[in-house]
Automatic annotation (TrEMBL):
Protein name: Response regulator transcription factor
Native organism taxonomy: Bacteria, Bacillati, Actinomycetota, Actinomycetes, Pseudonocardiales
Keyword entries, A-Z: DNA-binding, Phosphoprotein
Residues of the HTH luxR-type domain: 146-211
Ranges where the Response regulatory domain occurs: 4-119
InterPro entries: CheY-like_superfamily, NreC/VraR/RcsB-like_REC, Sig_transdc_resp-reg_C-effctor, Sig_transdc_resp-reg_receiver, Tscrpt_reg_LuxR_C, WalR-like
GO function terms (MF aspect): DNA binding
Phosphoprotein keyword on record: yes
Alphabetical GO biological process terms: phosphorelay signal transduction system; regulation of DNA-templated transcription
Entry-linked Gene3D superfamilies: 3.40.50.2300
Entries under CDD domains matching the protein: LuxR_C_like, REC_NarL-like
Amino acid sequence: MTVSVMVVDDHPMWREGVARDLQERGFEIVATAGDAASAVRIAKAVRPNVVLMDLNLGELSGVDATLMITSELPDTRVLVLSASGEHDDVLQAVKAGASGYLVKSASSEELVEAVSRTAAGDAVFTAGLAGLVLGEYRRMAAAPDDSEEKPQLTDRETEVLRLVAKGLTARQIANRLVISHRTVENHVQSTLRKLQLHNRVELARYAIEHGLDAEPEAEK
């Protein structure tokens, strides 16, 4: 199934270049926009699978556009593509509903993979940014409310949840935990039911907001 993409950036040459590169890689470019207001209006009309969103768009920011698009188009996912890797920018984008965050220094291959994974429902971040967001939420987390009834997850479900939040695919999680791909999907579906969530993006956001984290393993 072809993934439909809308590219939003205030620099025409960059916008057209990214759109052309993605189209050559097999994505369907259904629209482009150069400002936040146009992005929201056009997204409502074309309903793309993925909106590739810049942050610096003028009076209304990409964060504003992200919030409006994700609020009104639940089936459309937003992947931020920004020159900024600043912690605050990443945090605000995720809070607004972005499924992931990629910096513009990413390679073409990384961008193609990120768009594909975002369309598939994964939370995708440039290396290191997911850990920053998780750490910030962990520091900001309020004291737990003992009166609030919390869903009971198994140790394995919690472990899978943490890896989902770090942006790993189901197959990567299976390899990391030495279990089958199907077992990972079963844990994901069980966790979604318990938390009353709908997809892996919401699952990753839940983990971030609740400060769930795991010490990153050394890269092999």
